[in-house]
Amino acid sequence: MFKKRLILVSLAILIMVSFISYINGGVNAASKKYVMNLSTQLNESDPLVKGFKQLKKNVEEKTDGNLIIQIFPSAQLGSDEDMIEQTRMGVNVALLTDGGRMANYVQNIGIIGMPYLVNNYEEIEKLVNTNLFHEWEDQLANEHGIKVLAFNWYHGPRHFLTNKPIMKPEDLIGIRVRTPGAPVWQESIKALGATPVALGWTEVYTAMQQKVIDGAEAQHLATYTSRLYEVIKYIDKTAHIHLINGIVVGTKWFNSLPSEYQEILIQEANTVGRETALNVIKVADDYEKKMIEAGMEVIESDVDAFKDAAEQAYEVLGFKEVKQKVLEQMNN
Question: Which residues form a coiled coil (predicted)?
């Protein structure tokens, strides 16, 4: 009985020590190693997760294995909202996030998820390197405890997915389209003509089968891997939103790293982000071909008409002046 109790006490102490190490920034005091747990909702097969693995390799090599990155796909660590709060508390967690979620802290950064702000990845790179964007990053770090490592991780342009061809905004009237629940998404899709319906992405396939919704809007990587080509006929190529993602950590944990590790982490996050984006573009083209082979049809929609309609969302959300400032800085 005594031995059994001794084992249980020893186990409890071990767990407690591990937990203390975790909440103190993932530092292994004995070996002076740092650990960053990278969380994402994306599954193992996604090209961005492949990019995370390259980031892990590069960072660990350049820090002689002293900054370790552990990758947790498929929301293994929890929801993005939970992860953001943990980063702010100083836990050694990083996550892939978007402008919509960061807008909960710095409102104007939400504009990066607005329709037709950018037209391609090259313009995304200009956007995230403007002085204005850097000001938003500083606000996140200094006022909210969120440090941006890189915001150039790209998941491709989003298109409407429907069972009738969509050429212009008027064709979307009365069409119930699944969107994320954030106001930026809801107002944008409404401005483009559709009726937004907030649903979790994993619910889209069944919701289409049961006619709860009439369509969705998504980038090819999500459309193909969710097998929506089995329940949706048309890809309406509007490219209304280019999905820009960023990797963020907590300012408190980031500041606990040696300065050379901080530089390596930021540099590699940006370098691998760009390499991964170029791969995403290639993979998206391959997926489109496969979806056509599976029976989907591509509709070349009137993009100019959709761009005109999108201006209403900027008015409603108060982003018109911010958009003008962003475009001016991008073009300088």
Answer: none
Q: Which amino acid belongs to residue 140?
A: L
- The DSSP H or E segment spanning 83 is helix 80-89
- Name the DSSP letter for residue 228: G
- Residue 310 CA, chain-centre distance (Å), reads 22
Give me the domains of the chain, ranges plus CATH numbers: 33-331 (3.40.190.170)
The overall pTM is greater than 0.70: yes
Question: Which residue stretches of 192-258 are H helix?
Answer: 204-209, 220-225, 251-255
**Interacting residues of 126 by C-beta distance below 8 A, sequence separation 6+:** 330
Work out the number of other CB atoms within 10 angstroms of the CB of residue 227: 12
Question: Which amino acid appears at position 265 of this protein?
Answer: L
Q: What's the pLDDT tens digit per position in 35-75?
A: 999 999 888 989 999 999 999 999 999 999 999 999 999 88
Q: Would you give the end-to-end CA distance of the chain in angstroms? A: 76
